[in-house]
């Protein structure tokens, strides 16, 4: 069950800026960090952002993340065709005593 | 660079037990949590369970005690057993490395294995 809510889809033209939201609650995102994953079609998810706003080595700087309270955002600045994928947020939930994922957002490049 | 290689049966009948194993290569096994995550076809990600190098475990309550996760530090492997499977357990199963503190991110991910439950 997904306890973090994301929009099902977002789209944008190449070069545009898109924002993916992730909304949680007091038992998860308000207390714990948020991480983001990119899943290209037919592949395993890949870590995109960790601890709210940090990019692993090799992730382009057009990807950025932020968190405030029970909400987080992933921003893609300068959208490219290869960014077409599913994106998931992830955190920890103290009520469930486990890791939780967002519902996922499909990014379409127009 | 840490790599995860996973294997197990890909086709099960209802009521059977799912068994998957994941081997870690190229990094430290101790000091981390190791998890299983699944993704039903066309759906989102669901965390199943985690184990650390000393054998301490946590699992998702939604699996209602059907899950066993274990570790073999001598082989740098960890395993998942899920009993009494049904069609709802059909999914791609991924093994992943978590953090050292238990509340962390997941990286890297194994290649995934599709497990289909069908009579």
Which descriptors would you attach to this protein?
heterodimer, A: 110 residues, mainly beta, 6-stranded mixed beta sheet, 3-stranded antiparallel beta sheet, B: 119 residues, 4-stranded antiparallel beta sheet, globular
Structure, described:
The complex is a heterodimer of chains A (110) and B (119). Chain A is built from no helices and 9 strands. With 110 residues, chain A is mostly beta strands. The N and C termini of chain A lie far apart (31 Å). In chain A, the strands form 2 sheets. In chain A, strands 1, 3, 4, 7, 8 and 9 form a 6-stranded mixed beta sheet that branches. In chain A, strands 2-6-5 form a 3-stranded antiparallel beta sheet, with no helix packed on it. The mean pLDDT of chain A is 96. Chain B has no helices and 10 strands. Chain B is globular and about 40 Å long. The mean pLDDT of chain B is 95. Chain B has 119 residues and is an all-beta fold. In chain B, the strands form 2 sheets. Chain B has a 6-stranded mixed beta sheet with strand order 2-10-9-4-5-6, with no helix packed on it. Chain B has a 4-stranded antiparallel beta sheet with strand order 1-3-8-7, with no helix packed on it. Chain A binds chain B through residues 1-2, 32-33, 35, 37, 44-47, 50-51, 56, 88, 90, 92, 96-104, and chain B through 35, 44-47, 50, 58-62, 94, 98, 102-112.
Give the largest interface.
A-B, 25 and 24 residues
Largest sheet of chain A: 6 strands, mixed
Q: What oligomeric state do the depicted chains represent?
A: heterodimer
Order of helices and strands of chain A: EEEEEEEEE
* Low-confidence spans of chain B: none
């Amino acid at each position: 069950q997904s306890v973090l809510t994301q929009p099902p889809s977002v789209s944008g033209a190449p070069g545009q800026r898109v924002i993916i939201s992730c909304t949680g609650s007091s038992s998860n995102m308000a207390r714990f960090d948020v991480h983001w994953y990119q899943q290209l079609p037919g592949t395993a998810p890949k870590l995109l952002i960790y601890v709210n706003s940090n990019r692993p080595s090799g992730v382009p700087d057009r990807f950025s993340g932020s968190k405030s309270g029970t909400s987080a955002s992933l921003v893609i600045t300068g959208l490219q065709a290869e960014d077409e994928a599913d994106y998931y947020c992830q955190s920890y939930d103290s009520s469930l005593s486990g890791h939780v994922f967002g519902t996922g957002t499909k990014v379409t490049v127009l | 660079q840490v790599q995860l290689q996973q294997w197990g049966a890909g086709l099960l009948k209802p009521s059977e037990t799912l068994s998957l194993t994941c081997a870690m290569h190229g990094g430290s096994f101790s000091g981390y949590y190791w998890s299983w995550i699944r993704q039903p076809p066309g759906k989102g990600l669901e965390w199943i369970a985690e184990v650390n190098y000393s054998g301490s475990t946590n699992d998702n309550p939604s699996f209602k005690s059907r899950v066993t996760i274990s570790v073999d530090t001598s082989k740098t492997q960890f395993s998942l057993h899920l009993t009494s499977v049904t069609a709802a357990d059909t999914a791609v199963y991924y093994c992943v490395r978590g953090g050292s503190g238990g509340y962390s991110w997941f990286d890297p991910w194994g290649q995934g294995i599709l497990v289909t439950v069908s009579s």
